[in-house]
Amino acid sequence: EHLRYRKPEAIAAYTRCLTRAPHATDCLAGRLRLYGLQGDCASMERDAREWTVADPDEAAAFGALAVALHARERPWPAVMSALEAKWARTPDAKDRWFDEFAVASARGDFATAQQIARAELARVPPDARMYDQFFPAFELVLAASEAGDRQTVAEVSRSFLDKAAAWSPETVHEAAMPLVMVSAARSLGVLDREAGRVERQRWLAPVVEAQERAGGTDPYSKSVAWVVGYAINATDEESAREALDAMPRYAPIPPPGLRGTDVDLVISSIYLLLGRPEDARPYSETVARSCLRLENPYAWVFGQQQHGKVLAALGEEEAARALYQRVIDAWQGAKPASHRVDAVRAALEALR
Description:
The chain is an all-alpha fold. The chain is 71% helix and 0% strand. The termini are far apart.
């Protein structure tokens, strides 16, 4: 796990591996991933290209190339060509729907993104495991939330939570999925604060139980319950204070870059809401600089906005303006319009 946040040391180790074995694609894949996480998109693209040459039958190599190309703002036809190569090497094209959803979302076409996620959700068998039910439902909620579609968010989140009562989660991450859906409903006001607390009490215990069953030596495993039970639902100073007060029961909290962009965004938000931008900065910065924007377009755009807020609070107004402009550039022509762009425009104007 240390490879996720001790990146220079890990990159050096992968480089030594490749020096000894130039065709060791596992080392190449690991290094390019770390380059992407630390924001070195040029090196990520270089390694992705080398991977496609070293193993031209590997679908993941072309997927990584598509991500790197998008991060470097290459033309969309180039990105799509890499994705087509990935799909051609995936026998059942199992994840194609998500790639198409990500492309539509990155381009601000929330209407198409919702259609793709809704179609995939309809294809999931009713008896499928929670994992398979969650992802298309959550992606649908994400796209609908960005477009301000409260009705879709309410219907999909409620349907998932009602069905989740019958499922037995197999992993800690599956146990956390209902709480993630609760947070999505809270963010758009579909659930008020008190209703959110009721749902938290309902779904937090299964997460703790799943952690106890899993055991293991990961010192940060307990923090999952804090992230999904408290931190993810913080929308103002009061709820952020409640999350901070609960933090010691689930410590230690993961350092920046260890648990992925979504977790970093949540932790950064807690600190910013409490007027501690200096503590928020390392977390928001890891999201804003990531090259993995095509893997999670929403987190990347949210990260530009969040890091802009952090830098503005620290008095770094020029850098904040540049980040806000990235949000506008990404989604100013969104269909339907993004409510986030309006908020960012107002924030940008306040810095002028």
